[in-house]
C-alpha cells in the first residue's frame, strides 16, 4: 500500500476545523486584512497603485475563502493553484506599480528566472512551505530590482527593511507550523495558524502603505 500524500493548503494548517465554517479564526483575520486593504485602496490616486493594492485584496479575499470553505477532497490542489495564481497577479501589479514609480521596469531576466524556479516547485508540489517561500521570493526579487535605482523617501527607507524582515518571520512561522503543529496541538489545542495570518495581515497592509508613500513622493517631485 502506497503511503498517503501529505495534505496541501489549507487542509494542513494548524487550526481545528470548525462546525459552521472550516477555519473561522484564520478566515476572520483575512477578512480584517481585506477591509484594511479596501481602505488603503480608497487612498490611492493612480490606477497603477490601485491595481497593486487591488491585487493584494484579491489574494487575501481568496485566502479567506480557502479557510472558510474547503474543497471536499482534502488532497485537492485546487486551493494551492488558485491562490498561487493570485500571487502572480500581485507580481504583474507590482511590476506595473514599480514601473510607474521609477519610470523603468524591474529586471525582467532575473524575475523570469525566479518564475521558472517557482513553476518547478509548484508543478512538482513539494509542500506548502516551499510554495510560499518561492512566491515570496518572486515578490522580493521584483521589489528590490524595481527600487534599486529609486531615490526613496526616508519613511520608506525605514519601512522597507521591516517588510523584508516580516517576510523572513512568516517563512519561519511556516516552518514552525510544518514541523511542530502536532506537538503544539497535543500540548494545547489552539488555532496556531493565526500567527501566520496576523503576520500576513501586517505584510499586506505595510506593502500597500509603502506604495501609497511612493505614490505621494512621486506626486511631490512631479509638482
Describe this structure in words.
This protein has 223 residues and is mostly helical. It has one domain (24-222). Helices cover 75% and strands 0% of the residues. It is built from 7 helices and no strands. It has helices at residues 24-43, 47-68, 78-102, 108-124, 128-147, 154-187, 194-222. α1 runs parallel beside α7 and α3 packs parallel to α5 (128-147). The longest helix has 34 residues, at 154-187. The radius of gyration is 18 Å and the shape is globular. 31% of the residues are buried. The mean pLDDT is 89.
Task: Summarize this structure as a short list of keywords or feature phrases.
mainly alpha
Number of domains: 1
Main β-sheet: number of strands, strand sense, barrel status? none
Counting helices, strands and paired strands, the structural category is mainly alpha
> Beta-strand percentage?
under 5%
The number of helical segments is 7
Order of helices and strands: HHHHHHH
Helix content: over 70%
Radius of gyration: 18 Å
Average pLDDT, all residues: 89
Could you say which overall geometry the principal axes of the C-alpha atoms support?
A: globular
Q: Which parts are unreliable, with pLDDT below 50 for 5 consecutive residues or more? A: none
The overall strand count is: 0
- From the structure provided, what is the oligomeric state, counting identical versus distinct chains? single chain
The span between the termini is 70 Å
Q: SSE layout and pairings?
A:
Layout: H1 24-43, H2 47-68, H3 78-102, H4 108-124, H5 128-147, H6 154-187, H7 194-222
Helix pairs in contact: 1-2, 1-7, 2-3, 2-7, 3-5, 4-5, 5-6, 6-7
Transmembrane segments: 25-44, 51-70, 82-101, 108-126, 132-150, 159-175, 195-214
Keywords: Membrane, Transmembrane, Transmembrane helix
